[in-house]
Amino acid sequence: MGFSNIDLTIVVVYIVLSTGVGAWIGRHQKNTTDYFLGGRQIPWLAVTFSIVATETSVLTFISIPAVSYQGDLTFIQIALGYVVGRILVALYFIPAFYRGEMNTAYHFLGQRFGQTMRTTASITFMATRVLADGVRLFATAIPLAFIIKGSGAFADLTDSQFYAISILLIGVLTIIYTCIGGIRSVIWMDVVQMTVYIGGALLAAILILNKLPNGFATVTEWAADDNKLKWFSAGTDLAWRDFIKQPYTFFTAFIAGAVFSLASHGTDQLTVQRVLTCKDKRSSQKAISLSGFVVLVQFLLFLFLGSMLFAYYGGMSYQDLGLTRADGIFPKFIVEEMPNGISGLIVAALFAAAMSTLSSSLSSLSSAAILDIYVPLAGKGKSEAQLLKISRLVTLGWGVVLIMAALAFIGLEGTVVEVALGIASYTYGGLLGSFLLGLIHKKATQKDALIGFVSALVVMTLVISTVEIAWPLYTLVGSLTTIMVGIGSHKFFSRSKNAS
Fold first, then answer.
1. 111 phi and psi, to 5 degrees?
2. pLDDT of 285-336, one tens digit each?
3. Where are the domains of the chain?
4. Count of alpha carbons within 13 Å of 105, Cβ hemisphere only?
5. Which DSSP string do the residues of 464-495 spell out, in sequence order?
6. How far apart are CA 356 and CA 213, in angstroms?
7. N or C: which end of the chain has fewer CB within 10 A?
8. Do 204 and 334 form a contact (C-beta atoms < 8 A)?
9. What is 21-81 written as a DSSP string?
10. Confidence bin at 174 (pLDDT 50/70/90)
C-alpha cells in the first residue's frame, strides 16, 4: 500500500502539534523546582504513565517485536524481575529519598557520603545516559527512514543520510518543548503519548490478526513449529560457561532483571526525577510500583506482535524481507501493509514514544548537571531567575550532545534494545552498589564508597572485555563488587587507623 501523502501529513501534524502543546503546558516556570520537579505537585498516576512511556518508547515499539520475531517470548522473564525490583525500590529507596529535601537521585549520596560521591555518581549517570539514549534516538531514525523512502522523496540518499535527517528532525522538535516547558511538559506529554502509542500497537495487532487466514490460530500454528511462544527457560541443560552467556534463562533474566530494575528505577535520575515530582512518599511508592505491572503488560503486547509478524511473513528472515536489520520488521509492516491513514496514525504513535524518551533524557540530564554539580559547586549565589535561564541553556546543550551521539551510532549492529540495555548495565552496578552500601553499612565512608564504585567500573571493564556473560548480569556483578569492596575498604582502613 505504501506510505501516502495523507499518512505523511498526519505524522507531521502530530509532531508539530506535540511540540506546541508541550511548550504551552509548561510555559509558566518560576524557579528550578518548577522546571525540574513540577513544583512537587504531579499526580502519581501521571507519573506512572510517564515512567512507562520513558523507559519503553521506540525500543519497545520496534526492537521488542524483533526480539520475539527472531527468537521467542523468554524476554518476558526479565519483565517479571522488573516488577519485583520496583516493589523493592518502593519499599527501601523511596523512604530514603524522602528523608530530607531531595531533588535528584544523587542528592542521597551527597548527604550520606559527601559532595565528591554525589558529583561522581551524577557524572557517571550523564555519560551512561548520553550513550544509552543516543542509541534510543538512533532507533527513532529507523522507521522515519522508511517513511522518507516510502514517500518517494530524497531517493538518491543513502541509508545513513536517511537516518541523519530523521535524528535531526525528531531531536530539534523535542528540544524546543523540553527547553521551554521543563518536567511538567515532559510528564503530561508522556501521558498523551503513551495513550497514542499503546493505542497504535493494539490497532496494529488487530489489523495483523485480521489479515491472517485463521487469526490467532495461524500465529499458534507457525509458533508451534519454531517454539515461538516459549516464555520460560530454566537453562538447566546448559553447561555453566554457556549458561552465563544466555540472557533469557529464568535465573539470569528474573534475578538479574530485578537487580537491573533496582538500579534503573532507584538510582537513575531519569526515573527518580519523576518520582520526586509526586507530592509525598506514599504517592511516589504507588507510582513506581504500578509502573512495573504496566511495563509487564506492554512487553507482552509487543512480544506477541513479533510472533504475529512472524506468522504474517511466513517465517522469513529479515534479510529475505529486504531489510538490513531486524528492527525494521515492524516499521516495514506499518509502512507497506497498513491502509492509508492508519499507517500515519501508527507512525505518529511511534514518534510519540520517541519524543517522550528524548524529552525525559534532556530533563534528567540538565537537572543532574544543574542540581548535583553547578548549584553546589558554583551557583549558590545565583537568583532563581538566573538558574532557570541557565537550566534552559543546559537543556539545549544536552540536546545537541544527544543528537551527536545518535549520529555516531549509525551503522550499529544488533537489535537496538539489547545494545541500549547493555550500555546502561555497565555503570548501573556501581551506582546501585553505592546506594546499597550507604543503606546497609552505616559506618561506610565516602572513601569506601568511591573505592567500591571505581572498583566496580574496573571489574566490569575486565569482565566485558575478557569474560563473555549475558548483559543482564552486568548490574549484578557491578553492584556486588561495589558493596564487597566498600565493606572491605572500611575494615582495612579501620584496622590501619587502630594499629597506628
1. -70, -40
2. 999 999 999 999 999 999 999 999 999 998 888 888 888 778 778 878 877 7
3. 5-413
4. 32
5. HHHS---TTHHHHHHHHHHHHHHHHHHHHHHH
6. 36
7. C
8. yes
9. HHHHHT----SHHHHHHGGG---HHHHHHHHHHHHHHHIIIIIHHHHHHHS-STTHHHHHH
10. confident
Segment 180-213, tens digit of pLDDT: 888 888 888 888 878 888 888 898 899 999 989 8
**What secondary structure letter does DSSP report for 249?**
S
Q: How far apart are CA 40 and CA 347, in angstroms?
A: 33
Kindly state the greatest CA–CA separation across the chain: 82
CATH of 5-413, one of 3.30.390.50, 3.60.9.10, 1.20.1730.10, 1.20.1250.20: 1.20.1730.10
Closest Cα to residue 196, out of 349, 331, 56? 349
- Please say if the pLDDT value at position 403 is more than 60: yes
Answer whether 72's CB lies under 8 Å from 295's CB: no
CA–CA dist 452, 434 (Å, integer): 7
Single-letter code of the amino acid located at 90: A
Euclidean distance between CA atoms 197 and 346, whole angstroms: 7
pLDDT tens readout for residues 89-126 = 999 999 988 887 677 888 889 989 999 999 999 998 88
- C-alpha cell, 59: 525500543
The region, left, alpha or beta by phi > 0 then psi within -120 to 50, assigned to residue 227 is: left
Angle of helix 342-367 versus helix 329-337 axis, rounded to 10 = 140
Q: Collapse the DSSP code of 399 into the 3-class scheme (helix H, G, I; strand E, B; otherwise coil) and give the result.
A: helix
Angle at 224 between CA 221 and CA 227, to 5 degrees: 145
Task: Say which residue the cell 497498513 belongs to.
Answer: 338
Q: Which three cell numbers stand for residue 399?
A: 540536546
E strand or H helix at 172: helix 159-211
Q: What is the pLDDT of residues 349-373, one digit of tens each?
A: 777 777 777 888 888 899 999 989 8
Q: How many CA atoms lie within 13 A of 328 on its CB side?
A: 20
Residues 403 and 448: beta-carbon distance below 8 Å: no
- Rounded to an integer, what distance in angstroms lies between the CA atom of residue 126 and that of residue 119? 11
Query: CB pairs under 8 A, 24+ apart, for 147-151?
Result: 147/3, 147/7, 147/8, 147/11, 147/335, 147/347, 150/2, 150/3, 150/335, 150/336, 151/3, 151/5, 151/8
Q: What is the pTM of this model?
A: 0.83
DSSP state, 154?
T
